[in-house]
């Protein structure tokens, strides 16, 4: 090939390709030729580099114009360049599946929003054991509590999706690929075993998936067995702890109350002190799983309620009965009484004991007095306290003496004495509840004379004199 042909060919190549491509394997670069041999095929007034830059700018401008037109007229073809640049060529998720929290026994629903599903399928599976639950709208698992539902256009109202992407009338293929679909996984009658994460999966290559986790709220439940106290029976002075354990999600709060509504008594000090001088801290509600009593006292005996709650209804409770055992303690409020013959006399004693006692009265230690024509015997029980009452229906000259109220149980025996005397007064005196009251003109002592206090005082002085003389 001649030099002129080579230059001519090279000139055309430089004009078209900017002096960078060789025409044949034997031809030289245009830049290697002499200055006078480069311009035979080039355009005048513009360099090849400038022309290339202008062409690229025009191409970019053209793409932008096409994109603006596509957005303005709602052009929805997934084959367009702009659609592929923004959304890709395959299906995609519109938004995350999200997490769910529901109480046991209720229903949880996971929603999976997918765009441009096309020929692909959507499935649900549980990630903990990789159990496949469904494929499209078909249930795969044998769990009857699992269901799926399918909706088209379920995401069309979401603000994150640009307008003009979902539908094109008259083009079924574009509508099938561009529509937004929703697959919902329904889990009914929730159990604790349903807790975990669930995956919405599209069978693309590589696989696409979104994850949502389920947390199950469980109402509180009392743990029975060694962890929770049963009814207790202890001796007075022992250390006692009431335990109450509960399960649930979230962790339950445990508190204690007394069933009778009284305040809970907590000993302030661990030091020993006389029963009558014990100081207690009183609380209406005690918040803890353990209720401790140091050197338990009879006043702390009762029924306690363990209550567990975690804001997931219903709350639960358990009754724990605390019995404090001690020997009987018997006291007579009045140990010396005087009564006139023919009147009704009442004697009283108080008993504190647990377990229950056998209670009876004696006169001069000769035997047990029985309820009948002569005597009326009553008992009133409130908790561990008992009020013993002996009524002498008609006091006679044979009734004065030493009366004993006696109480006995498995832990011991207690007794107290009341000495009863024949009281002779000048005026008509009636004895009510062991007290002498003067009544003028009436044997029922319903109306007091203005000088009744004087008569009472005189009667008391006379009684003291007679007691002193008898000793």
From TrEMBL:
The keyword Zinc does not apply. It is found in: Cell membrane. The lineage of its organism: Eukaryota, Metazoa, Ecdysozoa, Arthropoda, Hexapoda. PROSITE patterns: IG_LIKE. Residues 91-212, 220-321, 328-421 form the Ig-like domain. Gene3D superfamilies: Immunoglobulins. Residues 25-48 are annotated as: Disordered. One of its GO terms (cellular component) is plasma membrane. SMART domains: IG (SM00409), IGc2 (SM00408). It holds the Pfam family I-set. This is Ig-like domain-containing protein. Keywords: Cell membrane, Disulfide bond, Glycoprotein, Immunoglobulin domain, Membrane, Repeat, Signal. SUPFAM superfamilies: Immunoglobulin. It comes from the Eukaryota.
